[in-house]
Write a structure and sequence with these properties.
CATH class of the largest domain: Alpha Beta
Strand content: 15-25%
CATH topology of the largest domain: Purple Acid Phosphatase, chain A, domain 2
Number of strands: 12
CATH superfamily of the largest domain: Metallo-dependent phosphatases
Protein name: Metallophosphoesterase
Helix content: 40-55%
Largest sheet: 6 strands, mixed
Structural class: alpha/beta
Number of domains: 2
InterPro entries: Calcineurin-like_PHP, Metallo-depent_PP-like, Metallophosphoesterase_sf
Order of helices and strands: HHHHEEHEHEHEEEHEHEHEEE
Radius of gyration: 24 Å
Keywords: Hydrolase, Membrane, Metal-binding, Transmembrane, Transmembrane helix
Mean pLDDT: 91
Distance between the termini: 46 Å
Pfam family, one: Metallophos
């Protein structure tokens, strides 16, 4: 049997390797991805045995070429220095469209063509055209459905979470989690108000926002974020920064949330008390905070828990699931996170799992620590969600000491 310490050493050695591979991949991704996303579908749908009329071939190829050139340009204008919202909308939409088209060109186009060939259906050109129309049909349906999924008010996901150290007085504590609202180029002020109305129907004791409020500065996205000021909780509303805050003047978002009546838990905690029992509610800055160069920002669990009673259970807010390694080492009972979006557009979740220990839902880490990872309340960039629905989460905390319901 392998010694536990050896296993941990092997795991810790493998982690930097995985990180370095991801960093190398990300370095070349902006150059490689647009080419693959547009040329592969173009070749499979227009240039592999179809023999379309010349005007169709030329027009189709021109559209793919326009996407290949236009998408990066729009992304740079929209998300670079100029921050042009219209350009961002165009670039983000093209990115999502090309990803879905690329994915299903491979997953539908290649197997379908093989199946038609094996069964001898039609001539080669007929088979190729059947494949093209099938891929375009699947892509259109998924994009329409994915757009509707992204823009709707998230469904409420409810689950009971038992914390062994939670006192009976806190049994039934209702914690609502929203995260990754990503207010951005598409104005979602009405959507934001409806999300907050839904949260208010849940009668929460504690409402948490685990970061990535918006893409853009607090001044620019204030109108979309303003409904957060209407959220109600019997005990507290708490917030921690996400990585996107550090792309757009994080301190401005901390100040705005404070202005809206939320408690920014920047490496600090508060106590939630009921029935003679206490729950420590702590929060840390996002793990990218320190490298942002913003003075006073950084993820410090020791600071967040300073002065707490080690016998009290701890609920920790940390934007990225990968902070759970530190949370487990620090004896945290439950960590709430977002960041992953559940992959947002399938099968992007495979890339997310390279960087994060969990994609969505409840998972255990170490002997004590539970991690709940939300798929996010909004969406980032491409206005689509495909097989990764958004959520508002209601977690009901349970104590093993509670009196069973008759």
């Amino acid at each position: 049997m392998t010694d536990t310490s050896e296993t941990r050493l092997a795991d810790s050695a493998a982690h930097p390797i995985r990180q370095s591979r991801l960093l190398r991949l990300m370095r070349y991704l902006p150059l490689i991805a647009p080419v693959l996303l547009w040329t592969v579908p173009c070749w499979l749908l227009l240039h592999t045995g179809q023999h379309w009329p010349l005007p169709v071939t030329l027009a189709g190829t021109a559209l793919f070429a326009l996407g290949l050139i236009g998408m990066p340009l729009a992304m740079v204008r929209g998300h670079g220095r100029r921050q042009q919202d219209r350009a961002a909308i165009v670039g983000d939409t093209l990115l999502g469209t090309s990803w879905v088209l690329f994915t299903w060109s491979l997953l539908v186009g290649v197997p379908l063509r093989l199946a038609l060939t094996v069964t001898g259906v039609g001539e080669s050109q007929d088979r190729a055209r059947i494949v093209t129309w099938a891929v375009l049909g699947v892509t259109a349906v998924l994009l329409a459905w994915g757009y509707a999924e992204a823009r709707r008010v998230p469904r409420v996901r409810r689950l009971d979470v038992q914390l062994p150290r939670l006192g009976a007085g806190l049994d039934g504590t209702r914690v609502v989690l929203i995260t990754d609202t990503h207010y951005g180029p598409l104005d979602r002020a009405r959507w934001s108000a409806r999300v907050c109305e839904t949260v208010n129907t849940l009668e929460a004791d504690l409402v948490c926002h685990t970061g990535d409020i918006a893409d853009g500065t607090a001044e620019r996205r204030r109108a979309q974020a303003a409904p957060l000021g209407t959220v109600q909780a019997t005990q507290a509303r708490v917030y921690v920064t996400g990585n996107h805050e550090y792309y757009s003047e994080a301190q401005g978002w901390v100040d705005l949330m404070d202005e809206l009546g939320w408690e920014p838990l920047r490496n600090r905690h508060l106590l939630l008390e009921r029935g003679g029992d206490t729950l420590v509610v702590a929060g840390v800055d996002d793990v990218t905070a320190e490298s942002s160069g913003l003075a006073g920002h950084g993820a410090h669990l020791a600071g967040a828990l300073h002065g707490t009673d080690p016998d009290h259970p701890v609920l920790l807010l940390a934007h990225q699931p990968k902070f759970v390694d530190r949370a487990a080492a620090g004896g945290v009972d439950l960590q709430l996170s977002g960041h992953t979006h559940g992959g947002q557009i399938w099968p992007f979740h495979h890339l997310v799992r390279i960087d994060q220990p969990a994609l969505a839902g409840l998972s255990r880490h170490g002997t004590r620590t539970l991690l709940y990872t939300s798929r996010g309340t909004g969406f980032w960039g491409p206005p689509f969600r495909v097989f990764a629905p958004s959520e508002i989460t209601l977690l009901v905390l349970r104590s093993p000491q509670r009196t069973p319901t008759p």
